[in-house]
Amino acid sequence: VIGEVSASMPHNDTKASEYGRAGAPPAGSVSPVFDDLAAASTPSEMNSNAKTGGAGPVKDGQFKDGSLDKDRAPPPQGPLTTNQGVLMADNQSSLKAGLRGPALLKDFILREKITHFDHERIPERVVHARGSGAHGFFEAFDSLEHLTCAAPFAEKGKKTPVFVRFSTVAGERGSKDTARDVRGFAIKFYTDQGNWDLVANNMPVFFIQDAIKFPDLVHAVKPEPHHAMPQAASAHDTFWDFVSLMPESTHMLMWQMSDRAIPRSYRMMQGFGVHTFRFVTREGKATFVKFHLTPKLGTHSLVWDEAVKIAGADPDFHRRDLWEAIDAGEYPEWTFGVQLIPEEDAEKFSFDLLDSTKIIPEELVPVTPIGRLVLNRNPDNFFAETEQVAFCAAHVIPGIDFTNDPLLAGRIHSYQDTQLLRLGGPNFHEIPINAAVVPVNNNQRDGFHRQTIHRGKVAYEPNSLAGGCPFQAGNAGFVPFPEPVSGVELTGKPEKFAEHYNQARLFFNSQTPAEQKHIIDAFAFELGKVTVPAVRERTVSMLRNVTDALAIPVAKKLGITKLPPPMPPATDKVFKPEVEKSDFLSLRSFPGEAGIRTRKVAILCEDGVDGAAVRNVAEALIAEGAVVRLVSSRLGAITGESLSVEADTTYEASPSVVFDAMVLPGGKSAAEAMMKNGEALGFVRTLFRHCKPMLVIGEGAQVLKKADIDPTASYPGVHVVAKGGDGTADLIASMIKHRHFERETDPPMV
Ligand code: HDE
């Protein structure tokens, strides 16, 4: 019967396994070789309790990478099966009553596949939905035993595995990477005392002082609820309405409107723990601590017009950048530092250490480097690792403790709670990426998706029937810092929390003129999107308390002719700031130590290009670690004047915004072709407008001129040399500076 039916069935000749009866892969299939993965997981290992970190020591020296082996699956080989392991005969058609008849409910294979598919998505994070992660390690520079008993700092050279997730805050999971936003910088340390999560940001302060305002803040910044717009943007009515009624947000607004909110790369931004935490020794001696991370590549940003254009050209810009760098062995690295404040200095400053809208200026308390953070491995699977990783501000280990920061208090609750919904129950600690690398021994049982198969009849403590195990660890365990507590129950804030403008002013005054201009432009842009004039004016009145050097130009750009009076301060008391200017607050203070490594350079080529110049420049740049791409109007071979080259990409596929610098190598007919090509000219113009370095050789100068940029003028970062001339060293020197904002004009020249 089967034979008869199949003769009349529609058939795809090129698919040998159309009906599954061939039982073999299609001709021409390639079997990927995954020896390492295949060897790592036998069925029995994959089912063992140890994979959850839950029942016994990890075999491989407690390194996270090794512990994940038990859960890694090689790409499936051989015939298809259902989730129950039943071989599937046919994966092309569902079961029907007759070829043109109805599908049958008893097709359990169809139903299993569709049901699984229907459930493939989990709720996205309510904030920080869009993110990218990587594995790596933390290495201690020295023992910090005199300050803390936390495991990562126990001895010089000690390495602790980490997983880091970077994120934007407001946008949904599929939103663009280059939104103006705070960036999350969440670090999970898999320590040999259990997991410690430092759930940090790329800015050292926050919008609000008390967790009770967090839902309001997030509701205000997220897309407006009636029409779900705008996506991944704070430039709208509700955000500015809220923050202009919450003057405590002023300091954070400075950071958010600064270039910090549009980083060039996750690899080129700082990280901050924000709150004041405590280091605690085994003897119970505590020291206040603030955590800082500073990138080896320096701190670099995009310009706003560029960020907007990248959002279209490559919405995955930061995700791709991180992935490609790690893939190429260019491992991002940060120096991990701490500000240490003795307990007795708790009330010493003009601001409150428990106020997350304040920094401790580094002039008052310097940052001491204590280790390095290196990211050296991309995840194997985005969902399993980056999406399912669950950070929690409450995950601390012995040696690290909280303070009474009221924002932190809310976070200690929120993260655990949010995972219950997002990851579907209380057993998310068993998901491989979240599992500790040390044994998890307790009597918690059951719940959705329990992986561990606990044996024995005892699930309580104390007991004698299980030899008393597991028993409490006493002083070897987490002993909360015995913070003295007194006072009456009340809502309210400490006095210094009411001072909202000193550090906003400190931040603005510490920026270079170009950075200040970007802040002014950002306020004007965002408020320009606000439709309610009163909200714009209220924000300007708030900014007047920072400095009129900011408020007046913003008001001018908004067409506010009559300057509103400064917003009345929340306190009449004057808190004199200790520091009025701090170099550490300008991005320009951290040029980095890595030269031009991983910076992307476009060399523009058309037929007739000076191939020798292309080769010389490319070789010199590659030798310095830059990534060079030959960009043209089409892919493939480009016939050069003396030497032919191969184009990697086109002006359309890779516009100038995805590059850090450019070379116009010249060649008579190549230059002529570019001068007739609006895309090539547009490339040159936008790259110039975004203040990026360029090297222009020979006839390339004509292209520059055609793009309305005078090749004889001396623009910082623009190097024009004659044919055969060598400007590579100048280009490299300019690239180390990243951007040449001295070139910026208002309005832009091109
Ligand atoms: Fe978060 N935050 N947050 N936050 N946060 C979340 O937890 C929350 C705050 C930060 O890559 C959520 O798992 C409250 C400050 C990062 O998975 C949620 C308050 C800082 C990430 C949550 C804050 C952060 C989150 C959403 C004020 C910098 C992404 C999903 C009281 C120090 C972590 C999740 C990742 C994520 C709550 C304020 C950093 C809802 C209640 C301050 C980097 O639990």
UniProtKB/TrEMBL annotation:
Record-linked Gene3D superfamilies: 1.20.1370.20, 3.40.50.880, Catalase core domain
Q: Which residue intervals are annotated with compositional bias (Polar residues) in the record?
A: 41-51
Q: Which residues form the Catalase core domain?
A: 81-469
State the SUPFAM superfamilies in the record: Class I glutamine amidotransferase-like (SSF52317), Heme-dependent catalase-like (SSF56634)
Reaction catalyzed:
2 H2O2 = O2 + 2 H2O
- Co-factor requirement: heme
- Give the EC number: 1.11.1.6
Indicate, by first and last residue, each region the UniProt record lists as having compositional bias (Basic and acidic residues). 61-73
Q: What segment(s) does the record annotate as region Disordered?
A: 3-84
Q: Which UniProt keywords apply?
A: Heme, Hydrogen peroxide, Iron, Metal-binding, Oxidoreductase, Peroxidase
The answer, when asked if Iron is one of the entry's keywords, is yes
The family database entries (InterPro entries) matched by this protein are listed as: Catalase (IPR018028), Catalase_AS (IPR024708), Catalase_clade2 (IPR024712), Catalase_clade2_helical (IPR043156), Catalase_core (IPR011614), Catalase_immune_responsive (IPR010582), Catalase_large_C (IPR041399), Catalase_sf (IPR020835)
Family assignment? Belongs to the catalase family.
What this chain does, per the entry, is described as: Decomposes hydrogen peroxide into water and oxygen; serves to protect cells from the toxic effects of hydrogen peroxide.
Q: Which PANTHER family match?
A: CATALASE, CATALASE-B
Specify the protein name.
Catalase
Tell me the name of the encoding gene: katE
